[in-house]
Records
---
Amino acid sequence: EIVLTQSPGTLSLSPGERATLSCRASQSVSSSYLAWYQQKPGQPPRLLIYGASTRAAGIPDRFSGSGSGTDFTLTISRLEPEDFAVYYCQQYDSLPSYSFGQGTKLEIK
Amino acid sequence: EVQLVESGGGLVQPGGSLRLSCVASGFSVKTTYMTWVRQAPGKGLEWVSIIHNNGNTYYADSVRGRFTTSKDKSKNTVYFQMNSVRPEDTGVYYCAKELSGRFDCWGQGTLVIVSS
């Protein structure tokens, strides 16, 4: 089973700042199968990024994903008030099996 | 519009059973991979099961042998039968549509509480 470790656990930033969230895998992940989600309190997760770097439909271009192998990054270029939430990375492998990182909470400083 | 609506959650005693339903609209479960993801209170997301378009099912180790996923194509509905439930099964259960390894549409979730 591939374990995803996200860092930091909590990120405190102000609107307008740049956010960089990390996701590290215990073994290599196909870039095609690495996704990022945003979750706000009381809501289901929302798909942001798939294939490590492709934005899902309707996602603003301030969200971007990058990385390969075992190291992946979600970047939010200029934080808007609605971006403060919990973010999860997720991977798929061919067993089939899926796993999520433990999440990064992005909070207002 | 693609939509998923879960139901069937509630309070169940340890060792008991519960069946969750997920009604899909805007697409057919016959041709789609459908999955269940759960979230314990205040915790992260945990994938628990998937059913492929051919009916093959796969489970996380934590639920294998206790929980079963099935679907009724005529009702465009996916089911999650939970048997021998444990307190650690408490949480919100989401059904989601799977596409090429990602979950691109989620229901609002249904809360399951396992307690005596």
---
Amino acid sequence: AQSVTQLDSQVPVFEEAPVELRCNYSSSVSVYLFWYVQYPNQGLQLLLKYLSGSTLVKSINGFEAEFNKSQTSFHLRKPSVHISDTAEYFCAVSTNAGGTSYGKLTFGQGTILTVHP
Amino acid sequence: DGGITQSPKYLFRKEGQNVTLSCEQNLNHDAMYWYRQDPGQGLRLIYYSQIVNDFQKGDIAEGYSVSREKKESFPLTVTSAQKNPTAFYLCASNPAGPFNYGYTFGSGTRLTVV
């Protein structure tokens, strides 16, 4: 079974400052990794994902995450945040093992990012 | 546009009543999922279905039931046996098969028991 730990429940930051949201996972098999963003009273939107290949993946709005297999981490970073980045962020893991585990995502507890002017 | 539609957006229920949450997708995805979201607990899997007429219990299935009679529909019933049903419920879908490219989520239903 896999698990995900998001190390910070809340991260306050000032506008234009850099931010890192931390995510560690546990799995005995190969994994796929995802970051989702949720705005208040809305569903989750896929921000970026690691399936294979380059360990550094980027989103269209300036976020990036790096898969670190040795540290079992997938931290999310942005060099300069905007007010509009205020939201809750979820890290999630899925395995590519066979059987009924196909496609099942396990989510972390979420990190609330609040960007202050 | 393709997507997932959850209805209603807000739902109020009296204790002891069953209630059904709707989830419809037009993405032609094989797999569908129901998650429950509570503050500080992330998303917890209730039920999932990888093919029509088949579904599996997730981590917190007690007090819930589902059906999957059509590929595009996966309704969730919250029964009176669910002890603490007030929560935000999210439906998701996935193309399924051997690869997970990331779920598509609906906009959610907020259920309040009064």
